[in-house]
Amino acid sequence: MRAAFTLIELLVVIAIIAILIGLLLPAVQKVREAAARMSDQNNLKQLALACHNFHSANERLPGYQPAPTGSSVASYGYSVHAFILPYIEQEPLGRMFEPNTQQLFFGSAPFGTFNAALASTAVTPVKTFLNPADGQDPVYAMSGGAPHAGTNYAVNIGSGLDANDAVNNPARSNGTDLRFPSDGLFWSGSRVRLTDVADGTSNTLMMADILRGTNASVTGTAYAALAPEQRRRLYASASAGRSAVGTAPGGLNPVLKTADATAATSWTGNRGGSWIWGQPYTNGFNAALTPNSSTPDVAGHGQGWFSARSPFAGGVNVALADGSVRFVRDSIPIAVWRGLATRAGGEVTGGNDF
Predict the structure, then answer these.
(1) Which is more confident, 35 or 68?
(2) Counting Cβ atoms within 10 Å, is residue 271 exposed (0-12), middle (13-18) or buried (19+)?
(3) pTM score, whole prediction
(4) 250 in any annotated domain
(5) Residues linked to residue 315 through DSSP beta bridges, in sequence order
(6) Residue 204's domain spans which residues?
(7) What single DSSP character describes residue 294?
């Protein structure tokens, strides 16, 4: 007679298999997270080295570039990411546009029309610009009527201290006005050399993780009512009642306050929404808030607090100006974090501080 399993035996076998799967899943998840974190660090390393190679070829770091002279949308220029494409094995994509003569937008600020000749370029995802642990769709609907491919890596645009009131109240953060020189490494028209980094390249941030936005705006919802993941990916809109100061050092009038973020009911979801377009919210970060801060980002007229954030628990990966990559914990003191964002602030930041 042929032997056969009884129903009870089959149930026992199934139960054992289920237990084994339950035990293996956390281990598999940890392996996947470790692999994603390693890939993220490798991307940051490649981007930092690309900036160094650009520096070797041009005797300066790349910078955000305003649109060509005469453009009515002067701040709608190319990003740092656009200039380092040839240095991350993306020469064909980099040859599809000419930053010095081909402008990104036509028309009047704040919402010009995106140059249709660059539509296929702007919407092309670049693997090195994307964190594999971020599950958001990489393509975003951006201003100007054309979709853009996004990025998870932002360049250091400064400490985020109030540009308008640095003398009277230097501790107050109010974002960074990208149109004017900042205390970081990158702004519109910047030509920073590594020799300008007086604080030391191993003590100065170059790039950091960011979370890409939800690609959808939310109106009429208080911060407390947002889903946890929305809180991390959206930033508060605070343009109403404020004007952008048109002379250096720039900034907003009146200045931003924490309440503009915590009491907001209007939110924007295009954080990290473009690798080609040089704007603070698309591919810049400042140190106004510590990494993964519970205070939401906030912006008015394109400037404000744009934080380093990551999908990894406890902190963010950063690339320093010497090309090294570090994991910075959320608990880093704000003074140390802001000190790391300045290139020549004279702050003392030991290796054990971050």
Answers:
(1) 35
(2) buried
(3) 0.88
(4) yes
(5) 329
(6) 32-341
(7) S
